[in-house]
Known about the structure:
The chain is mostly helical. Helix 1 (28-79) packs antiparallel against helix 2. The protein is built from 2 helices and no strands. The chain has one domain. It is found in: Membrane. GO terms for molecular function: odorant binding; olfactory receptor activity. Keywords: Membrane, Olfaction, Receptor, Sensory transduction, Transducer, Transmembrane, Transmembrane helix.
Amino acid sequence: xxxxxxxxxxxxxxxxxxxxxxxxxxxxxxxxxxxxxxxxxxxxxxxxxxxxxxxxxxxxxxxxxxxxxxxxxxxxxxxxxxxxxxxxxxxxxxxxxxxxxxx
Length: 103
């Protein structure tokens, strides 16, 4: 004998996301609009999650690239300095650039 699950009769079955509704979703005039609304809401949720993840990945890559450029500027400054006044001036420029990145 097959065992059936005891489901709550108020739970609407057959929708993409079963839920409780204050109306009878077994009637076709309520089922179709509810099904359509759930599909549209699912599409917008997927889009917003994908957009946020893509934005955060791009932002992280951009920040890492900018910090890499600051590091390369420091290496170039240390390896190719000729006198202290030039070193201080270039170091000041690097610090100003880094401050702009932090804003």
